[in-house]
Design a protein that fits this description.
The structure is a single chain. The protein starts with 10 loop residues before the first helix and ends in a 15-residue tail after the last helix. The N terminus is likely disordered. It is 40% helix and 17% strand. The longest helix has 20 residues. α3 crosses α12 and α4 runs parallel beside α5. The chain has two domains: 236 residues, 3-Layer(aba) Sandwich (Rossmann fold), CATH 3.40.50; 155 residues, 3-Layer(aba) Sandwich (Rossmann fold). β9, α10 and β10 form a beta-alpha-beta unit. It is α/β, with parallel strands linked by helices. The protein is built from 15 helices and 14 strands.
């Protein structure tokens, strides 16, 4: 493979990300400039250290994979792409500082971030002030594309309302109306649990639960409380390493024999980090690799595997889509101007080779939320020879159905005049 194809994914970015693209060769940004090109610069801010690091690394790898492919075929507007990766360290202040550096010093044309919803929300204040296009690959809290939506911000992952709505009916039908929540005590957890509670109360259900710091590692007190409540289903809303620790302790306590398990997200990176007996429950996947007959999916899965030696996850897809979103916006607008790109993206349908799932997958004009399918189904120990065969899709829930109308989100979109 020609060493020029990954211009812009310099060693500095890969070292910062703490990830590698296997055998893919590297070319530093200086090589781009030596060819007389001005690169399209994209800043990516994610928590490459901390409890969400596995998710962040997958998002970065997905973006790097897209950059490599697009640079080989002409980049964006005929210019190579330079991806500048920064670690938010799962800290709002650090994330904001990195955003200002990328915008003011590096003059990026777009910003991606963050896995942590609170950081993604804080970044949106900066990018809106600076009039820079922001793509939120994987921060879920509702206000980002709800009551605090902004003309320059587009989101790939679902809102917490979408994720809760997609799986609530299944949990109610299969297990009953008495639930116990273990939820992270920050923006993502707050809006996710509120959405679940709304659905539960509408069905006449009841609940108890604990909201805990994302840094929690010992869940024994909460699990004892859950056992005493005798719920029909325990919803583990924690994420990353916190969710992994909670899952392991849930099994150690033998609670898998006493109650059902489920919730919004149990992501592939986390599933593969727990013992087989902890791979259970009914959950959402925001993208899933096993889609027989859907065009381009197998190609993407094979490409991610070759580039990273990992199975393709929703987080890889988020990063991949984010890069392609900038290309789609810039080439439709024939400009890297943020206002023009934002207008261009409204109601824009992703092509099949980017959507990688059936149906019409588009950024909704009213709130800039991607209306993608939600894969709902059951997590289980690996089936067959593929260690990533740990989830079976029961149904696809269309994004529009899970999201509800724009009027219900609280978003009122206002563009600047220039």
């Amino acid at each position: 493979m020609d060493s020029r194809i990954i211009a812009g994914i310099g060693r500095r970015s890969l070292i910062k990300a703490g990830v590698a693209l296997g055998a893919l060769p590297l070319a530093a940004p200086a090589i781009i400039e030596a060819r007389g090109e001005t690169p399209v610069k994209i800043g990516m801010i994610d928590p490459l250290t901390g409890v969400y690091s596995a998710f962040a690394q997958s998002e970065v790898q997905g973006a790097q994979y897209a950059v490599a492919s697009l640079n080989k075929s002409g980049g964006i507007l005929g210019r190579q792409i330079e991806l500048l990766v920064e670690d938010s360290a799962n800290d709002v202040g650090t994330g904001v500082q990195k955003a200002r550096k990328l915008i003011d010093r590096d003059q990026v044309n777009a910003i991606f971030g963050d896995v942590n919803s609170a950081i993604a929300y804080a970044l949106s204040q900066v990018t809106n002030e600076k009039k820079v296009l922001q793509i939120v690959p994987g921060g879920h809290t509702d206000p980002i594309t709800g009551k605090d939506c902004k003309w320059n911000v587009f989101r790939i992952c679902n809102t917490t309302t979408m994720d809760a709505t997609a799986i609530s009916g299944t949990l109610l039908e299969k297990f009953g109306k008495r639930w116990f929540f273990i939820t992270p005590d920050y923006a993502y957890g707050h809006t996710l649990q509120a959405a679940f509670v709304k659905n539960l109360k509408a069905a006449g259900g009841e609940y108890e639960g604990d909201m805990l710091p994302l840094s929690t590692s010992d869940f024994s007190a909460t699990l004892i409380k859950a056992r005493a409540y005798k719920p029909q289903v325990l919803l583990n809303n924690m994420g990353g390493q916190a969710q992994i620790n909670c899952m392991k302790q849930f099994i150690q306590f033998g609670m898998n024999k006493e109650m059902a398990l489920g919730g919004a997200l149990f992501e592939l990176e986390s599933i593969l980090s727990v013992p087989p007996e902890a791979r259970s429950g009914w959950w959402d996947m925001e993208w899933w690799w096993d889609q027989p007959g859907v065009p381009h999916v197998a190609e993407f899965v094979a490409g991610i595997k070759a580039a990273t030696n990992k199975p393709a996850s929703a987080r890889h897809w988020f990063g991949f889509v984010a890069i392609h979103t900038v290309k789609i916006a810039a080439e439709k607008a024939k400009s890297l101007d943020a206002i023009k790109m934002a207008h261009a993206l409204e109601d824009e349908v992703l092509p099949p080779e980017v959507a990688l799932q059936p149906g019409k997958i588009a950024y909704r004009a009213g709130d800039h939320e991607l209306m993608a399918n939600i894969f709902t189904g059951e997590v289980h120990p690996a089936k067959g020879s593929n260690p990533a065969s740990v989830f079976t899709t029961a149904k696809l829930v269309p994004g529009e159905k899970a999201a509800g109308p724009v009027a219900d989100t609280g978003c009122h979109m206002t563009f600047p005049s220039a």
